[in-house]
Amino acid sequence: MRLCAVWNPEDHRRALCVADDDGVFPVARFGDVAELLTSHLGPLEAAVAAAGVSSDSLGRYDDLTKIEPGSDVLRLVAPVVPAEVWAAGVTYERSRDARVHESSEKDIYERVYEAERPELFFKSTGARIMGPGAPVGLRADSEWQIPEPEIALVLDGAGEVVGYTLGNDMSSRDIEGQNPLYLGQAKIFAGSCAIGPSVVSTKAVEDPYSLEIEMHIVRAGQTIFTGSTSTARLRKRFDVLAAYLQRDNWIAPGTVLLTGTGIVPPDDFTLQPGDVVEISSDPIGVLRNRCEPAEGLAPPPAWTS
Fold it and tell me: Does the domain formed by 85-296 have CATH 3.90.850.10?
């Protein structure tokens, strides 16, 4: 099962939808996967069945992926608006090597990569995340910034993995490299986390450790970086990451856990305003976001009204 969320300008609300070859069908009154999981525990298929699905399609999913943000028409938004987004680091060898290279405390990342306990850190709140097509931010005080394409786990209130989506963990490598205690500033800022374009249920993914992930970065219409990896290269399994997040911790329904990146651009690369980051994985889709200065991004409407 694939779930997406659309913004309807007519009634100014989100609608959680089931997306299939026949169209995009609203799920009862829910606006995103987190709302659905707050009311219904268990697999997404069972939660959707209990909630009920409209027989009236809002359109075709492929058409909605082409709509620009801000357009006064139905458009895709983040499929899950979690209370919290967490992230795991140093879960791929490529990520370990990159963080060892950037840091003045190189042995820290070597030890984390080999250790049983994963690195877990807070990344975002639901109000801060950006959906498909929305801008992602670039810090004004960083000169070395990259996207980090990741498979993201969607957890229910019991901490069980019920779905997968894509995440972009925007990062300032120079800030983090100066000191590991600067991790929060390197990872949490305006527009630093994008999620989407859909949530695919665990039942729809035969083997989560064979998911291929690709990233393309486009500048002025030209692809300037491309990379790929597979979840087969993960050092730590998804269930282990989720289990450690649950230890003596409260898990809100719809919590998202980013699982780390195995794609890192070369050391002489940094993002620029206007760059477009495209992260893709079948069957989740393509998460596409344009880079803009973080200082120019508007805060969530509820924070300014």
Answer: yes
